[in-house]
Amino acid sequence: LGYGQALDCFSHHGGFALHLARQCEQVTAADSSAAALDALTANAERNGLANVRPERADIFDLLPAYAAA
User: Fold this and answer.
1) Spatial strand order in the sheet of 24-31
2) Cα 68 to Cα 50: distance, rounded to the nearest angstrom
3) Cβ distance 24 to 46 under 8 Å?
4) What is the distance, to the nearest Å, from the Cα of residue 44 to the centroid of all Cα atoms in its chain?
């Protein structure tokens, strides 16, 4: 893998996150919908990607928290 970590906001079913996961060490896929993250997790498993970490959060709360950390 060539790149470090990535963050996919509003990830829904994970199309962008799954693409990133092929190049990154870890991808955090954030969405406020539990159902969307369940679908994302299933899609990652179907594609053999174990480096996608779903995170249920309101993006507008999550980004300032990341910036402050």
Assistant:
1) 3-9, 24-31, 52-56
2) 28
3) no
4) 10
Q: Record the tokens describing residue 18, joined without a space.
A: 């799954």
What does the pLDDT average to over 37-63?
96
Rounded CA gap, 7 and 9, in Å? 6
Q: How confident is the prediction for the chain on average, in pLDDT?
A: 94
> What mean pLDDT is predicted for residues 39-61?
96
Q: What's the rounded Cα separation, in Å, for the pair 69 and 1?
A: 26
Cβ-Cβ contacts under 8 Å for 25 (sequence gap 6 or more): 1, 3, 4, 5, 51
Q: What is the CA radius of gyration of the chain?
A: 11
